[in-house]
Design a protein that fits this description.
203 residues; mainly alpha; 0% strand
């Protein structure tokens, strides 16, 4: 009955997600971000390449890119049988796919943490709070962004279940983890080898 909304939302969300603020800001500054640092257009690589202010700006914009569409979907569809949450979760997956594999940048992009956080604020806020707390604890203990980010992502599966969110939210968390872990695959190798990058300055 609602199948057409699934198609519309996943496609629209993917195109919204494909808008890369990091790549745009880097280009304005004369930098090809996909050839710099880790090759990611996300906030962490922008911070390394262009500085802290630029990294913070990109993080905020990517966060809003996940939050605003997810909130709009959640608030503008009927709540019967959790349809609004189901569609918002689908939209978040589309945003993350676009962010990580942008159609405008040869299917390259960021690693999805900021956009995931934004989407979670709209549809699973309790999960976000626990995840951010875990991120902060692990980052300040290790100074390794990727480790903190991977632990944040993994925690969303457990907390979405513990907070009794609809099954679709749990499935959403699993899919998001798949995307995030894939985007962090080189980081995982470096973590295993003990050669992952650390932030030596205050983040």
């Amino acid at each position: 009955m609602y199948w057409h909304w699934y198609i519309i939302i996943i496609l629209a969300s993917y195109f919204v997600g494909s808008l890369s603020f990091g790549a745009l800001l880097a280009r304005i500054n004369g930098v090809d971000i996909f050839s710099s640092g880790s090759g990611s257009s996300g906030a962490t690589n922008i911070k390394r390449t262009l500085g802290g202010s630029a990294g913070s700006l990109v993080f905020a914009l990517d966060f809003l890119k996940g939050y605003v569409p997810s909130l709009v979907i959640a608030k503008n569809f009927p709540g019967e049988n959790y349809l609004n949450i189901r569609l918002a979760a689908l939209g978040l997956i589309g945003i993350l796919l676009g962010h990580s594999f942008s159609i405008f940048h040869k299917f390259r992009g960021g690693k999805g943490i900021a956009s995931t956080m934004g989407g979670l604020l709209a549809i699973m806020p309790n999960t976000l709070v626990i995840g951010i707390f875990l991120w902060l604890v692990i980052f300040h203990a290790t100074k390794i962004v990727s480790m903190a980010s991977l632990c944040f992502a993994a925690s969303t599966i457990l907390t979405s279940y513990l907070f009794s969110y609809p099954k679709n939210c749990i499935v959403c968390s699993i899919i998001i983890n798949g995307i995030i872990f894939w985007q962090h695959r080189t980081n995982i190798v470096r973590l295993m080898n003990g050669t992952e990058y650390k932030f030596t300055k205050k983040f």
